[in-house]
Amino acid sequence: MNRNNGRNIAVRLFALRDYLFANADKKHAVRVEDILTFYKNKGFTDNNIKMVYSDLHALQSDELGVDIAYDEKSKGWLLFNPPFEAYEMRLLVDSVQASKFITQTEAKRLTEKITKYFGSGRRQSLNRQAYVYDRIRSQNDSVVRETDRIHEAIGANRKISFRYFHYSPDRSKTKSYSKSGQRVIVSPFALYWNNGNLYLYAYDGKRFRFYRVDRMEDISKPLREIREGQDLFDTKSLTRQKAKVFDMFSTGKTYTVKFRCHNHIAHSVIDQFGKDIMMMPDGADHFTFTQPVEISPPFFAWVATFGRSIQIVSPAPVVEEMRSFLNKSMDMYKDDGNT
């Protein structure tokens, strides 16, 4: 066998494997006639039934490991080891569709790309969107591709730069850039998912900060400068933070807070702090728990959501800041005679 012929066989085998991955599964068979048509459309010459059977048996070898078998009932070949099981594929598609970080255009493109690796018999069941209540998507189309530059910079131990913006409250929702539009230079250390949004955790030369990735624009390739803050980053663990941070609003003001709650909000407390918190009964209708918290306006807003069903018991400085938060909110709604 000459080298070119061997290369042609390899190309044909990998094309057949991908064809089976896209069109066959445990319940849907591919017939030899379908494969012959596929070969013809791909431009493979001199194809015949004998060649197809030879290729199918070659795919079953240990080297290629495609688990296929002939099904007498359907007169075709079934696939038993697809690249993704049905539940895995649905999870991928739904995760893409549900993400606020990904724009609608990008979500549609990724969904179409993923479903190419799903058997055609069930592909229609994936041709749908995951409907998420009140989802607001990112408007930054380039950020998905540019995020890879952050990974490159982290791996290369280099800094990156970008422009960081917020939307203005005017009718046109124009972008308002930090630092008057100048580029922000930081040392990137981690990407962090929270509430459907992706954040960059980076050192800005003074402290670690979170940046919403979909508000980062024109992300650079890794810069020449070596990252700073490694010694500080080593003392933190993003997945095991002792203090709960609400909505990535970092203030650095951490307290161990004691709460008293009505029993009917136990599920909400667990959703927020996890199942490992220790809930202590306090009478027939209430429980208490203690949790390290980085206090911030989003934290006080979360507490206020439950009205009289949750109370901050201690420490005194946090109780006082909660009072101040509520009083300032109430001041906005006082009747000053101008209404």
Q: What this model shows, in words?
A:
This protein is of the alpha+beta class and 339 residues long. It folds into 4 domains: 3-79; 86-126, no CATH class; 143-234, SH3 type barrels (Roll); 254-331, no CATH class. It has 11 helices and 13 strands. Strands 3, 4, 5, 6, 7 and 8 form a 6-stranded antiparallel β-sheet that branches. Strand 1 and strand 2 (76-79) form a beta hairpin. The longest helix is centred in the first third of the chain and has 21 residues, at 3-23. The protein is elongated, with a radius of gyration of 28 Å. The N and C termini lie far apart (92 Å). The model is unreliable at 129-136 (pLDDT under 50).
Number of strands: 13
Count every helix, treating DSSP H or I runs of 4 or more residues as helices: 11
Helix content: 25-40%
CATH class of the largest domain: Mainly Beta
Assigned CATH architecture of the largest domain: Roll
Are there runs of 5+ residues with pLDDT below 50, and where?
129-136
Mind summarizing the main beta sheet?
6 strands, antiparallel
Structural class: alpha+beta
What is the CA–CA distance across the termini? Answer: 92 Å
Please state the overall shape, judged from the principal axes of the Cα atoms. elongated
CATH topology of the largest domain: SH3 type barrels
Number of domains: 4
Short description:
Helix content is 37%, strand content 21%. It is α+β, with helices and mostly antiparallel strands and 339 residues long. It folds into four domains: 77 residues; 41 residues, no CATH class; 92 residues, Roll (SH3 type barrels), CATH 2.30.30; 78 residues, no CATH class.
